[in-house]
Design goal:
Chain lengths: 116, 113
Amino acid sequence: EPEVTQTPSHQVTQMGQEVILRCVPISNHLYFYWYRQILGQKVEFLVSFYNNEISEKSEIFDDQFSVERPDGSNFTLKIRSTKLEDSAMYFCASTPSRRGGVDTQYFGPGTRLTVL
Amino acid sequence: GDSVTQMEGPVTLSEEAFLTINCTYTATGYPSLFWYVQYPGEGLQLLLKATKADDKGSNKGFEATYRKETTSFHLEKGSVQVSDSAVYFCALSVEYNTDKLIFGTGTRLQVFP
């Protein structure tokens, strides 16, 4: 069964450094998402992406964050200058269509980001 | 704003025990409701869903009924197995023209033989 993959599984970085988290969505999917979960807190929506542009973003997704689909298969989340509070598990998801959440979002296993 | 509240874990049960994980929600519109499960080392997987009031979602022996009057979507299973040990997330999606999911904090279930 096709699945969403994410790399790396764990990323450790120094505060102020740039990080890029990578995701490979399911190949025929058109809508892509990033979520994050700070330890002990809720899974939070960050951004959704369709047709090479952001379709929705949350308040968390400020100018330090950006997303890109550079080559038609990868979907990346970049954090320009990491802060301690960016430490979290980041989940990528994809779905073939957009029907108000009724269609299943397929999630990757997550990347744990630790900012020191 | 829209939100989901789940019971805190961990929930620890013996094999074949009855499971209930409580989930309540607050939403301004007419939400669709979901349960996702995360097994160790894996991504979030959709377990079941319900899109309107009184609908019952079911999968792998798990059930949840969309109760609009109590704004709840409690997850139940009659007889848990060790293989059900995982983290369970309740989630909702509210508006037709937005596709984001709003999650609860997750509840860890540990089943012992």
